[in-house]
Specification:
The protein is mostly helical and about 80 residues long. It has four helices and no strands.
Length: about 80
């Protein structure tokens, strides 16, 4: 449950990798959990979409290169 204007909520909605439930919507949260518990295909599809998003947006080579740049700048 996150504010729907939160970047995480937008990523979840745009990637189709889960449900973005507004803070305070306890019934909506419970319904989303029940839906995932009862729908193997949906759960697997959302998991697949989450992996695709992560592999696309968090390329390890780019991240490692950026960390190296930050560390090198900090050492000088």
């Amino acid at each position: 449950a996150v504010p729907l204007i939160n970047r995480a909520a937008k990523v979840i909605q745009e990637s189709g990798s889960g449900f973005a439930i507004p803070v305070g919507d306890d019934q909506g949260f419970v319904q989303a959990v029940e839906k995932l518990l009862n729908d193997d295909a949906l759960r697997n599809e959302m998991g697949r979409k989450a992996r695709v998003y992560a592999e696309t947006e968090f390329d390890i080579d780019k991240i490692a290169e950026r960390f190296e740049q930050i560390l090198a700048a900090a050492c000088h």
